[in-house]
Amino acid sequence: MLRSLYSGVSGMRGFQTKLDVIGNNIANVNTIGFKGSRVMFKDILSQTVSGVSAPDENRGGVNAQQVGLGVSLAAIDTVHTAGSAMTTNVVTDLRVNGDGFFAVGTVDQVDVPFLTRAGNFTVDPDRNLVNSEGLHVMGPDGAGPVIIPEEIVSFSIAQNGDIIGVNADGETINTGQRVGVVKVTNPAGLEKIGGNLYQMTANANPGGEILVGSAGDPATGTGTLISGQLEMSNVDLTGEFTEMIIAQRGFQANSRIITTSDEVLQEVVNLKR
């Protein structure tokens, strides 16, 4: 059988995966805090037809003769560039202006929360700050879930995450509650688990450790919090449609390799006639 058949098949599989990733990116173009992905390829081990010979006193060196065996996936990377800001003027809508993720989870998940860039939070009947799935927003340094105190009638959120309240007497007070931010060394190493959530891995932070810190901390390099704004998806439709055209043409070209290889094999079979 011709090696080109298998090379063509590997190319079609690779571009099919690329189209799957592009389709998911486009589907989430309006998803809050979504980070698009990209597909990277690598060539498969080549078959050596003739080896290398070094030069000597009488003759120069000869290069190796190798035939490639196709293509395979090298990586599917999550691109963590910042998305555009959308102003909502809702106090509990938060955007991380810089590096960092919000930590959310259940009460028994304080030590291993999920991470997210989607800051569309609300206050539940128990005055807990939660996301759209009902997961608690965590405070820094193991402080646990963020709770809005009952004695205040309104509040705002500062750039460092502090909950600043106004009581019934009109006095401005610091409630002692603060929204935490997690700095991740390698955001591309996080694992997507759906629902705008990421799960920490050993390739994202050393040992998979999660340290919930404060926003705008110079020591850790976390970004500040902007209240009344949300981070939109970082998907660029122009780039995605361009990549879709490239993937489509690549798929077609590889299918042509299979068709041509089949025609060559047919000619070989016809030699018997």
TrEMBL record:
Pfam families membership: Flg_bb_rod, Flg_bbr_C, LlgE_F_G_D1
Boundaries of every Flagellar basal-body/hook protein C-terminal domain copy: 227-271
Flagellar hook protein FlgE/F/G-like D1 domain ranges (all copies): 96-163
The keyword Cell cycle belongs to this UniProt entry's keyword annotation: no
Predominant cellular place of this UniProt entry's protein: other
Extent of the signal sequence: none
Coiled coil: none
Subcellular location: Bacterial flagellum basal body
Domain Flagellar basal body rod protein N-terminal: 5-35
Entry annotated with the keyword Electron transport: no
Family matches, as InterPro entries: Flag_bb_rod_N, Flagellar_FlgE/F/G, Flg_bb/hook_C_dom, FlgE/F/G-like, LlgE_F_G-like_D1
UniProt keyword annotations, A-Z: Bacterial flagellum, Cell projection, Cilium, Flagellum
Family statement drawn from the similarity comment of this UniProt entry: Belongs to the flagella basal body rod proteins family.
Primary role: A flexible structure which links the flagellar filament to the drive apparatus in the basal body.
Name of protein: Flagellar hook protein FlgE
Native species: Paenibacillus plantarum
